[in-house]
Amino acid sequence: MEQVEQKDVEEKAPSVIDRYYTRWYRADMKDKPCEDHCILQHSNRICVVTLAETHPILQEGRTIQTINYQISNACSRLNNKVSGKSKRGGQFLTEFAPLCRITCTDKTEYTIYSCIRGRLLEVNENILETPNLLLEKPSTDGYIAVILPKFEESKSITEKLLSREQFESVVSKRSPAPSQPS
Amino acid sequence: MLPLKEKDKPIARKLLTAGCCARCVLRFCCVSTQASYRQPLQAPKYMETISRANNAAVIETHEDPPNKRPKLDRSVTLPQSEGDASTSANVVPISKGETSCVCPVCLGVLQELCGVIQAKKVCGTIKSEDYQFDTLVLSVSLPAQLCVREVIGSLLTFREKGLALDKDDVIQVKEAFKWVMQNLLLKELSGVAVVTKSTFEVGVEFNHPDTDADCHFLAAACPDCFKPTKNKQSVFTRMAVIKALEKIPDATFLRQYPCPPAQPTRCCYLPDIQCLHLSVFIAGRYNKFCRSLPQTPWLIDGERRMESSVEELIAEHVLSAFRAAGFNFSSSGREDVDVRTLGTGRPFAMELLNPHRSRFSRAEMKQLQETINKSSEKIRVRDLQIVSREAMSRMKEGEEDKSKSYTALVWTHKSIQEEDLAFIHNIKDLVVDQKTPLRVLHRRALAVRPRVIHSMSTRFLDSHHFYLELKTQAGTYIKEFVHGDFGRTKPNMCQLLNSDTDILELDVEVRKMCIVFFGSI
What we know:
The complex is a heterodimer of chains A (182) and B (521).
Chain A: H1 2-11, H2 16-20, E1 21-26, E2 37-42, E3 47-51, E4 64-68, E5 92-93, E6 98-104, E7 109-113, E8 118-123, H3 126-129, H4 132-136, E9 145-148, H5 164-172
Chain B: H1 9-18, H2 22-28, H3 34-38, H4 44-52, H5 116-129, E1 135-141, H6 145-161, H7 173-188, E2 193-195, E3 200-205, H8 216-221, H9 238-247, H10 250-256, E4 273-277, E5 280-288, E6 298-300, E7 303-306, H11 310-322, E8 326-331, E9 339-353, H12 362-375, E10 379-387, H13 389-394, E11 403-412, E12 428-435, E13 448-462, E14 465-473, H14 478-483, E15 489-490, H15 493-497, E16 501-510
Parallel strand pairs in B: 1-2, 1-3, 9-16
Antiparallel strand pairs in B: 3-4, 5-9, 5-10, 6-7, 8-9, 11-14, 11-16, 12-13, 12-15, 13-14
């Protein structure tokens, strides 16, 4: 009985993401296999960068060793400061701007990218304290960064991204990997 | 017929030769008895003498002290103008048989334009607009070139002869006009007092495009007085022109501007008469029972995203009752589209612009409130009343200090039992740090705001639902407290219950708190 109930819950579970966001995907970022990113675009045009369920970090029971927002000698995403309503001062990102580097305990290293053009508003500092958040709740509490695209570009940024259906079809065409995406 | 003294004689002669009207002569002779100006210009006696005399200006002096009402048994003649009889073709019809030459100083403002015909016209407009008023104030706007021409009048009289008459004693055109016109209006509108301060304003704005160029020479003479304007409006405002005229030396003035000036062919005209009633303010409290109604109209790129709004539902009936042109809506706080407003209701105030009707009895206000409440199930209004302008600005007062009560319907991912919620009742004054929610981050600055949740209680519904009642500090984002907003509100309900949670419904209960500026009916 409990199990059936739980499944029902899963099926019609309300979610903030479903209500207010559209999911867009970037598959195989920088041609690295399966390094898929998911961009959650709010109806007010703000975008949240997250790992797609298929990302290697979330596979094979990996644990995270470090998350580093220092992407170069000169630049740390942690130094990003925005002020005022117009969010002045935020670092401007292009699609391939790195947001952070994640090292797992099995020595694998991954770079997470912006995927869209826009002003960096914030990076998730909670995952620095609690890296598990990234593994347990990659779509919500484990988000990577929040980006504000330019007003004029808010519609066009999604042109280079895949919709949910398109992404799922890309994934289904991949050669079977040791652990399937959920 | 003019109450003039011996010393005024040369002034009057000079002005009349230049073609000035009788009233302008009186002004430059510093006659301050209002009644003198109210004598009609085109009285039959005047006409006889005009036709009899030709170019000579004949003035009889009168020995009466200025304050006594003068006996008007003398006549004054006006010289014939050189050209044809001028016609003011634009607006004011001239009665037959009159030779009218437009006064070069007042451009006709003190001639036909302050006569009975004009007064009747103004009254006609006032009556047709159908305002409710006891008193009115007449506001007059004259074209800037009248300042220039006033200087001519001065130059013709005082400055040349070096007469020691104080400029301040000269009666201004606007003042003389009001002396005449206000009296005429009083006669036409019985029972209405024309005063200096009133909630109802009748504005007459005179134009004289023919002589707009009069001021232009000042731009070359005193360029620093004229700042370029952002709008397309003329840079020759009254203020700027007056400033320039004060600066410019007489000699320069006379070089640039003919003295006496050429006789204008047409008098000023009055495009239209503006009636304006001072704004009226109303206030009340509203409840919102609908989960798809924004407080103010929701438009994106000019397109309406959601039908109607709280303010429109209220304004519709208020505007028609007060016959107002528009409104400004202000409320003490606001709620989301999908949140109901329960309890005694949220205080709001409205400024009604240019209301044609401004007086309502308490019974009538109650009637209006009933009308609003009957018209829609989505909102309800109470304590509707007329308030002062202050109420509007005080509406936002103390918004930060208030505490709010909310009821949220919470969904839990994890299956729960009633006992699992017991600990919530014991939580007092919980401080939550809320980063600016993502849903408003596009229009608010990014910041962390600590807010206090004073107390909470629950009502168990089923294994995945319960009602959460909260008393919080004003400005707390309840939705984000429940679902966590990507973990950016800490602590949040997901953490407290150790389960994913979401909010399905929210109601806000606004209690009647310390708002003292208006009471209940």
